[in-house]
Amino acid sequence: MNQELDSDLLHRTTGIDPNMPVSMSNQNIPDIQNIPNVNEISINTGQNTQPVQNTQPVQNTQPVQNTQPVQNISFNDIINVMDNNLNDCVVDLLFNNINVNLRTMTVGEYKNLAKMVEMFEENIKNDDVKNDKVEEIKLERDLSITLDNILNRCITNNVPSGELYLFDWIYVLLHLRMISRGEKTNFSIQCGGEECSEVIKISIEEIIKNIKDNSDNITKLPLHEIEIKDNMFVYSMPLTRNDIKYIQNRCIENPDLSQKVLSYAISLKGFRVENNINAMTYEQSETLIDKLTSSQFEDFQKKFDEVYKTFFANFGKFTCKKCGKENNIDLSDFILFLLDS
Ligand SMILES: [Zn+2]
């Protein structure tokens, strides 16, 4: 199984190198050409608004007298109606006891996103980028900021995308994809069986259901404490999008830093002495991780990885009809969800 890091969008987008449980090698990246051009999407151009001529004599040709003055409707009114008419859904966050109200992407937003994704896919394959860690992180950062911007527009109840835990960020993006693209929400994944080329389509709806059904498993481990001394603890929490943005920026400024180690560090959020809890700044977290003993670090690293594995393991499994192999659904390249398949 050949899972290259540079094909791992989670890693790209988040700096996390989670050693995915099982992965599909050689995932089929849907051809960007398949993204419908906005011109192909049926848009009412106004040319077909003529009512069909009725050949029957119409009996009630007198318009009903309207006692109200006819309102003058401006173009802006129409746009407002369209903006408010977008389908929405309510996402129950996994790690927070709050809901996110989400509206669909418009054709224009989707088109811009598709363009960004296309550029990203092209640039990331560039040899100059492959040999330059900083350039790679910059591309990852810019794409994830694009996703943040779209989320911030589509979340209609003022929950900032930066405050979402990474898992909820992915979860909300899955919902956004589902409601924005109608029936075209299949994800093509290739069987990881040796010499098996079977491609299986799985709907995002199904994946969202798997996550929902297993949300208790997913959320049971988020907080981990490291005992420093009697009744003194350092605790870690899953990373938020803002944490990841910080990690990306730090690694761009300072190419010697390891994204993975920095991710561990930043997940250390504070310390507790009995019932007194103190939050830590990013700088303090970075200082603190170097002070851990190697056994404390190893134990914490295991727990951290476990939380990520648990999340990704609950996307679901499928059994290949051709070779019988059981595959886990790997969303590490979840950029695929932004493309049509
Ligand atoms: Zn197979």
Can you characterise this structure?
With 341 residues, the chain is of the alpha+beta class. It has one domain. 41% of the residues lie in helices and 14% in strands. It is built from 12 helices and 10 strands. It has helices at 9-14, 75-84, 107-124, 127-130, 133-154, 166-180, 204-213, 215-219, 241-253, 259-267, 282-289, 294-313; strands spanning 88-92, 99-103, 186-190, 199-203, 224-229, 232-236, 268-273, 276-279, 317-319, 326-328. The strands form 4 sheets. It has a 4-stranded antiparallel β-sheet. Strands 1-2 form a two-stranded antiparallel ribbon. A hairpin with an 8-residue loop joins strand 3 and strand 4. Helix 6 runs antiparallel to helix 7 (204-213). The longest helix is centred in the middle third of the chain and has 22 residues, at 133-154. The protein is globular, with a radius of gyration of 24 Å. The model is unreliable at 1-52 (pLDDT under 50). The structure holds zinc ion. The site of zinc ion (ZN) has 8 residues, from loops.
Features:
single chain; 341 residues; alpha+beta; 4-stranded antiparallel β-sheet; two-stranded antiparallel sheet; globular; disordered N terminus; binds zinc ion
Summed up:
The protein is of the alpha+beta class.
Question: What is the secondary structure topology, with strand pairs?
Answer:
Blueprint: H1 9-14, H2 75-84, E1 88-92, E2 99-103, H3 107-124, H4 127-130, H5 133-154, H6 166-180, E3 186-190, E4 199-203, H7 204-213, H8 215-219, E5 224-229, E6 232-236, H9 241-253, H10 259-267, E7 268-273, E8 276-279, H11 282-289, H12 294-313, E9 317-319, E10 326-328
Antiparallel strand pairs: 1-2, 3-4, 5-6, 6-7, 7-8, 9-10
Helix pairs in contact: 3-5, 5-9, 6-7, 9-10, 10-11
The protein binds zinc ion (ZN).
Zinc ion binds near residues 191, 193, 198 and 325.
